[in-house]
Amino acid sequence: MNYNNKYFNPEEAFTRQEIESYQLDRLQKTVEHCMNSPFYRERFKKEGLKPSDIKTLDDLRKIPFTTKQDLRDTYPFGIASVPLDQCVRLHSSSGTTGNPTVILHTQKDLQEWANAVARCLWMVGCRPNDVFQNTSGYGMFTGGLGFQYGAELLGMLTVPAAAGNTLRQLKFFTDFGTTVVHAIPSYAARLYEVMQERGIDPRKDTKLRTLVIGAEPHSEDTRRRIEEMLGVKAYNSFGMSEMCGPGVAFECPEQNGMHIWEDYYIVEIVDPDTLEPVPDGEVGELVLTTLKREAMPLLRYRTRDLTRILPGDCPCGRQHKRLDRMKGRSDDMIILKGVNIFPIQIETILMQFKELASDYLITLETKENNDAMTVEVEVADNLSFDDFGKLQNLEREITRQLRDEILITPKVRLVPKGSLPKSEGKAVRVKDLRIKY
Ligand code: AMP
Ligand code: ZN
Questions:
Q1: Is residue 437 part of a domain?
Q2: What does pTM read for this prediction?
Q3: Residue nearest to atom 1 of ligand 1 (CA)
Q4: Ligand 1 atom closest to Cα of residue 245
Q5: Domain final residue, candidates 275, 310, 331
Q6: Residue among 133, 130, 128 nearest 153 (CA)
Q7: 279 pLDDT band (50/70/90 cuts)?
Q8: Strand 411-415 relative to strand 284-290: parallel, antiparallel, unpaired?
Q9: Mutate to test the pocket of ligand 1, among 102, 288, 326, 345 (most ligand atoms within 8 A of CB)
Q10: Rama region for 162: left / alpha / beta (φ>0; ψ in -120 to 50; rest)
Q11: Do the domain assignments include residue 195?
């Protein structure tokens, strides 16, 4: 099964030329196959477009974008390109507004998905003698079953611990000799907190070596902190339910950008306003076209995630392009007093302060007809609340640095460790209580 010790699949070692000719072939087949979908058939007809019009990779740009709204409008099965009896699983994401979205999978889709996840894990050194513990929610959240099948395909002993119950997670670490853990970044920090409370030293008392963190935006400093706390190497993992789930893009051992598997996806970065492509190195919206999906191929899907392609070659030798750490989603953007702010900008500043722990909450409120932002952040264990002067100075310095970054002045409040609400799934970083007129 393994191509050699470095690569899990031959496709992983493709040159640029091989990637592109593979992509053109798969794109043409995908577009042809999409004509089985009532949604795409109609869309192509409306545009006067035929599958035979796609002669080069550049011709992809003739195809209209697919949006989350399209998925909602055709809920539940209207985009599918195969009859329902060929599908064996669905995942649904509820989102915050409107109809949920549904993604259908055939048996082959699930095999390809597991392969992509296994490839990612193999890339960062996971091997069959590892014990992989997955702290994701199972069920509809794709981080559960997605990693389960990928880790099993690679051959690891896989522990479907699922989310929450931190004491039980720690018991599994020690009892089963867990070496690799998948956790969302906020939960990785929580695991360490509880280890500290219980007097567990992850370096001495566990065999943890590798952490896979993803599913939510996090800064480089957050990653380094988590690595330092748990004594592991932590790799950024990017995916979304619409593209199966995890396994879309993943950091290699260089930890400098996530290789997006271009035998699975065609990647475009576009300006979210003009929808024109931006050059490599510039931030824009990630747009993905699936190349292997049977049940529900998606053409030029607007992910709303903002990132850029890192220019240049990766020293690891893989030629699949690298995505930079996500800057956030276009729909996460806070507009306060006309200024556009991404929560990750705030996190990046906060995590540079050693005196702070990793949990924070941004609250937006209307006070005396004025919109205001409060940033509450937990302090590290070793910072005492008795030294009032020191706390005040720290608050002042954080406020100054935040103002320089986001151009408005938030109210900063330092709060004791453990006092902010914790969620079992993705961390809730923003509470918007503003009065909407
Ligand atoms: P879901 O489909 O519910 O799994 O959510 C997918 C979304 O989670 C993506 O579109 C991103 O906004 C976010 N996401 C997933 N992985 C990462 C990551 N590694 N860094 C930042 N955001 C991520
Ligand atoms: Zn690399």
A1: no
A2: 0.91
A3: 240
A4: 4
A5: 331
A6: 128
A7: very high
A8: unpaired
A9: 326
A10: left
A11: yes
